[in-house]
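Following up on my earlier thread - several people asked me to post the actual chain instead of describing it. Fair enough. Here it is, all 186 residues.
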Amino acid sequence: MIFYLVRHGQTDWNNERRFQGQLDIPMNETGIRQIQDLADRIVEAGVRFDTMIASPLVRARKSAEIIAERAGFQKEIIYDELLMEIYCGILQGELWQPGMDLTDPKYKMETVPETLKRVERMLEKYTFSDDERVMIVSHGGLLAALRTVLSDYKVDYHDKSVPVIQGNVLCCVREEGKEPVFYNLF
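Reply from S.P.:
Thanks for posting it. Predicted structure:
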């Protein structure tokens, strides 16, 4: 089984280093071009996927729609609220500041353990075949949690050696009896 993990294209708030969380912020023109270019590279590389699941937030939804259209994906895209970005509490809409302790309860943020449990619940909802190819289009924080769960908790949530990058695809190959393998497609 292979998972193709795609982060939505850039938003103005990404540029501003503003917490988006679960607010419905659209991609900007750069983000739309990023996803169009990524979709073209996916097609050129001959990547095929059997299932597409995406966050319903507009920046991920639009990214999934662009990829599906350009790749000729004929099935329905599944939109799952469990793939929405980490809830950023009272920081949603605020600028990120160096030195912030995001684990401080005063911010009322969804914690990493809570996000990991949410990702586990999302994966448990679906039955995938051993040879299925699943594309998941979501958000940076959520995809970091998904990467951790797919690695059987061998890749730490904060590990930057296996990055989730806008404009690329993080692949996770899972075969029974073997360690999951991660690599960036481009």
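Strands lie at 2-7, 51-54, 78-79, 133-138, 169-173, 181-184. That should answer part of your original question.
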